[in-house]
Design goal:
Keywords: Cell membrane, Membrane, Transmembrane, Transmembrane helix, Transport. With about 260 residues, this protein is mostly helical. Helix content is about 80%, strand content about 0%. Helix 1 packs parallel to helix 10, helix 2 packs antiparallel against helix 3 and helix 7 packs antiparallel against helix 8.
């Protein structure tokens, strides 16, 4: 058993990663569970962020594989946005490396709050974006505008990542994607690009705690793959309500324990 990884912590990390993988496959928001769990087990916030990113990246790849049949988009747009996601993920992760632990700890409650608000209002935002897209005279905005938006989203994802999938829904809507399963497939693919490339700077800096990351990766992959296959039988509304309760609870906790 690795140092500081007790049996209780192991079971806790595995089970929360399994749940998070399922949440990410259906509605998003899995980091609201796994990231605080790593901190509660005694891991410093920046290290927890890097380890959490690494663990859930494999789960995102598993979800992308389960949704692969729903991934239908023009090859040119897919390649451009994938490349932009890789660049932004590197920028965000390197920015995290140059952020002091004290500054990140002070930013953490606000990062969680922003991600929580993004998740909470994602459905009204998605409906508004779809309405704007439907009323627009053009089929889709210029790819350059979409690339800038995806770059900003990818930088945020490389730096922190919670709520990343929700932010990408705006890009998907402007691309004219209406099918929820196609949106989940595209979101999982681009998310795996962002989180995957961010691992490289984290590895170089030695931030990843591999025992915890591998344990959570196994749990998250199982949860993500199984729930991606059975997501059509789940009620996304109930899942979203559960995630919102957890997200607001975690945000409140970190604001109260900011010092």
């Amino acid at each position: 058993m690795p140092h500081n990884l007790t049996i209780i912590h192991s079971l806790l990390l595995f089970s929360t990663a399994f749940i998070a993988g399922g949440l990410n496959a259906v509605a998003g928001g899995g980091s609201f569970i796994t990231f605080p769990t790593l901190i509660f087990t005694g891991m410093p916030p920046i290290t927890a962020n890097a380890t959490n990113n690494t663990a859930l990246w494999i789960a995102a790849v598993a979800s992308a594989g389960a949704y692969r049949r729903d991934l239908s988009i023009e090859r040119r747009e897919l390649l451009v946005l994938a490349a932009i996601s890789l660049v932004g993920g590197v920028i965000g992760s390197v920015a995290l490396l140059y952020t002091s632990p004290d500054v990140f700890k002070k930013l953490l409650p606000y990062l969680l709050l922003s991600a929580t608000l993004i998740f909470t209002f994602s459905e009204p935002l998605k409906k508004w974006l779809q309405l704007q897209s439907k009323n627009s005279s053009s089929e889709s905005p210029p790819l350059f505008i979409l690339s800038l938006a995806q770059l900003a989203i990818a930088i945020y994802g490389g730096f922190f990542g919670a709520g990343l999938g929700i932010l990408m829904l705006a890009t998907l809507t402007f691309l004219g994607i209406k099918n929820i399963h196609a949106m989940n497939a595209f979101k999982a693919f681009l998310g795996s690009c962002i989180n995957g490339i961010a691992i490289i700077p984290f590895m170089v800096a030695g931030l990843i705690v591999w025992h915890q990351a591998i344990l959570m990766a196994v749990g998250g992959s199982l949860g993500g793959y199984l729930c991606a296959n059975y997501s059509r039988k789940l009620d996304p509304g109930l899942v979203r309500k559960f995630v919102m309760v957890v997200a607001f609870s975690m945000t409140t906790y970190f604001f109260l324990h900011q010092n």
